[in-house]
Amino acid sequence: MAFDEENVKYYILFDNYTHGFAMQALLKGEGIKNRIAPAPRAIQGDLTCGMSLLIEPEDLPEVERVIQEKQPTYHAIRPLAGQINPHRDKYC
Amino acid sequence: MSDYLQMWKDLDMDIETHDMLCQVLPTAFGDTFLSMENRPESMGFYDFVVSEIHGIRPSEMIAAQAEGKKVVGTFCVYVPDEVINAAGALFSGLCGGSQFWVPGGEKYLPKNTCPLVKASLGARFDRTCPFFRLVDMIVGETTCDAKKKAYEILGQDVPMYIMDMPQMKRDIDIQKWADEIKAFAAKMEELTGNTITIDGLNDAIKTINNKRKALARIYDARKNADNIPISGLDALLIMQIAFFDDPARCAEMANKVADELEQRNKDGVSVFPAGTKRILLTGTPLAIPNWKLHHIIETSGAAVVCEEMCTGTRYFENLVDEDNATLDDAYMALSKRYMKNNCSCFTPNQGRIDDILRMAKEYNVDGVIDTNLKFCCLYDTERRSVEEAMNEAGIPFLGIETDYTDSDAEQLRTRIEAFVEMLG
Amino acid sequence: MYYIGVDIGSTCAKTTVTDADGKIYFQEVCPTGWSSVDTAENIRKQLADAGFDPKDNVVVATGYGRVAIPYSDKTVTEITCHCAGAVQLFGHQEMGVIDIGGQDTKIIEVEHGMVKNFIMNDKCSAGTGRFLEVMANTLSVTPDQLTVLAEGGSDTSISSLCTVFAESEVISLIGRGEKKENIAFAVVDSIVRKVASQASRMHLAGKPVCLTGGLCDSEYIRKALSNELKMDVETCPQARYAGSIGATVFARKLGAKKS
Fold first, then answer.
1. What CATH number does the domain located at A14-81 have?
2. In terms of CB atoms within 10 Å, which end of chain B has fewer, N or C?
């Protein structure tokens, strides 16, 4: 698999979506860009919660600052490269 | 809570095989949806539903079953959700839209069956879709030959009820469909142990009408000739999820999207650059998670602004009369609305041609792409009439036949890009 | 400034270089091989050696490998390019263009020098160069030899349109001791009938029909196609470059916009 270093995104993973929505509200309140994304299987581990929050690399320090400050519940933050490629033409 | 593993085990699902589907879905969703910029914020709800696609709604349905409610699976936009709702049951569209389920279906069906039918059987028999596992009954209908015969096979594994669909639109056919709806209502009463009252049915009609109105608002916003407030792919996802979501919540969420799209039209916020070619996509349904064609079109310099499909206008156009005096009146009102739908299983089917011509104008389209699922002989045959009508009206037309596999993506790209180049 | 059209097809890659007036300075065809990326790089070197370095000129890429050409300024589909190339080559503003390519066959209806409508064969190699190649292989001849052989054959047919099944039919014919000429005839006949049946769905009546693509060198195919379509199909040796010639048309348009 090609490792596309320029296309790294960060995913915040959760044990359940209630935590996910709480985090989303928190980030939104702080004006930090984030999007709900199905948690990529490669980083999901044994979690069955499919919800993750997708963060751009440049926003990561801000996210970490907010987490430090407000201590929301989450499972982990994981980087993943090459996950979004509109020309892959692999559907499901 | 999100511990779905136990739920899937309780549904006797094939956990290992199901996990393979869970692996490909997030990537496919990332490539198609998350690669788009400037999506409406209200799409967050739908992104969330996809992220928990086999978790959240099935768990709601199972909770309802624990309270004694029934869940009914359906395959067609002619089956009246109002009746299911009025009997106090939940409904869920079941059409399979993934290649993942096709080989499973091919164990039971001839290979030259349409992928939607094959995938639907595969999802049930391979035990890899919770919706297919949890339903108490499946309602089929006699729209196409492939489905009719497939229902016989499905019926060996799950309780089936079949509605006999007329194939013409004379007055006797509308009466016949009203009678079928009445018989279905009796079946629903038997299944649920509840009595359908006229007030209950009128209420259910209002509920489903509200959902239709909300979805229609989204489509109305897509008619704007100067602005494309939402991608076709996002609009398609809303439609796909509408088939299994709770109808009141569906209306609420769709109205939120519509509010945002109307504001975007006022502010001139578009998801495509000015001059992007506007496409009306017509033909066979695109069941979840079939996102291939929209994605290819929308990464080839065009935008889908309307779907003349079951997963599109056929799902919400036309309302049912809400204030019916008797149940028989209500069944007739339902029949009248549903019989306005123009599926290619009807003959003759001039109504569909008229729909396409009208939508081409209403949605200010530059061209029409007609798609049919491989081996759907009804839509395939009807293409000739559609193409002739488009030629006559001077509307550029491209016909496409495809299935759920990835293998023709390159060829589709060439064809669609060439079509967009042709539009100038 | 030169204007370069690169057409990477499934079988062959074609390159054409023109000046601002469309005068051709360079033309080359090479097998695509298994990697479009490598082919694109080889073409770049060839162009640079010949004094038309892509980085100093305008490049438009077309064909299946169009996305694999990193030095292209723009990509245009082969349908649009074949139309533009045929307009240049044959000088008709209204015509039908039949391009028999390696893995697909396109029929293009041209109006006012632009694509009015087109069809391509579906996921199937019936009626394409690939079909011819497979059958030539089975007969242990080259595709060119096959079309020459076909001229001396008659009265044999292959009923199956599927390449895999048709190959079995050819093997049965060989087993039966059928003359090679007759089998070759049946192969070409099958392609021509398939192409003609596709063409019959387009509105080509009364318009000239021109053949582009790799089979344009075969006079026999041109004649067989003319017979089947009941109209005189035109072609010329340059027509195999129609895609890349068309791409230079768009390169010149792009160049004019840039400067």
1. 3.30.70
2. C
What subunits make at least 3 CB pairs under 8 angstroms with A?
Answer: B
ipTM: 0.93
DSSP A68-79: HHH----SEEEE
pTM of the model: 0.94
Alpha-carbon distance of B1 to A18, in angstroms, equals: 7
Q: How many angstroms separate the Cα of C61 from the Cα of each of B116, C12, C75, C87, C256?
A: 37, 14, 5, 18, 17
Task: Return the closest-CA partner of residue B246 out of B136, B93, B90, B96.
Answer: B90
Q: What is the distance in angstroms between the Cα of A6 and the nearest Cα belonging to chain B?
A: 14
Find, among B155, B28, C233, the residue nearest to A92 by Cα: B28
- Cβ of B25 within 8 Å of Cβ of A38? The answer is yes
Is residue C196 situated within a structural domain?
no
What type of residue sits at position C117?
Answer: N
Non-local CB neighbours of A51 within 8 Å, separated by 6+ positions: A14, A17, A20, A36, A38, A39, B2, B48, B51, B52
B48: closest CA among A53, A73, A44?
A53
Place of tokens 């489903």: B208
- Summarised one tens digit per residue, pLDDT across range A6-46 is 689 999 999 999 999 999 999 999 999 999 999 998 898 88
Domain count, chain C: 1
Q: What is the CATH number of the domain that holds C33?
A: 3.30.420.40
Residues of B in contact with C77 (CB under 8 A): 414, 417-418, 421
Q: Which amino acid is at C243?
A: G
Integer Cα distance of C139 and B382 in angstroms: 41
Tens-place pLDDT, residues B149-158? 999 999 999 9
Separation between Cα atoms, residue B246 and residue C46, nearest integer Å: 63
B2·A39 Cβ contact <8 A: no
Domain of residue C247: give its range: 3-79+242-258
Q: Verify whether the Cβ–Cβ distance A91 to B4 is below 8 Å.
A: no
C194-218 confidence digits (pLDDT tens): 999 999 989 898 999 999 998 888 8
CB distance B2–A52 less than 8 Å? no
> Residue with structure tokens 């056929």?
B314
